[in-house]
Predict the structure.
Amino acid sequence: MKLVVGNQKAYLQKSEVINFIEKTKSELCKNAVICPSSLYMEYFKENSSYILGGQNVAMLDTGTATGEITAKQLKEMNAKYTIVGHSERRANQKEDSEMLVGKIKRLYENEITSILCVGEGREVKEQDSTKDFVGKQLIDVLDNLTKEEIASLVIAYEPVWAISTGGAPSVTPTNEEIADVVSYIKDLVNDKYEVSLKVLYGGSVNSKNIETLNEITQVDGYLIGGASVKPDEFNYIMEKCLQ
Ligand code: PGA
């Protein structure tokens, strides 16, 4: 079974959350992870059987952090996973490796699995430097974690140029490209840290490409943005991945 993680970003209003939960109710939800806007986490907790995840966490476990959400608070919401280092946050909130290390440590202390996102931008891809870039993103974080903390991670490979494109064939990587980078990530973590980790793919995963993506044996699951707020899309993806 693949690991299906929906990253609902800031897409939904409350009425749309209610509609999403209503229209995606099935046995399959018990095995799918949804990372809602933190405002709606409690609503998901009370009204759905999804496994819950956070979209971000504070680097420090302190009360004096206006606007932040701590790992302890996420744990209280029964979150089992939390996304760390999403490319939108790396770009917009200027999150660097040091901050990601802090976030992962706080999550580890609270028994929450970090989904650490890595992925290259368009320019890096065009220079054929994807592996160097992704390798550095990983090492910069993993070198500052204990072996136990590393072993608790899930990695999400999300090429930045493939995110939120709607998934036209020309803007998602080929299966071969994804398999190549995912294998590289797994080998690097295995060789350097002697740990074997799950690696997800993310970037315009949808109902049209999910069956093709499922052919990549190296990929352990998906981090899904846009398609995770559309009930029909998400139902279809859950059917193809979770049964
Ligand atoms: P997308 O987003 O599926 O809309 O491309 C993925 C993500 O940003 O995690």
Remarks:
- Residues 23 and 141 are 39 Å apart (CA to CA).
- The chain has one domain: 3-241.
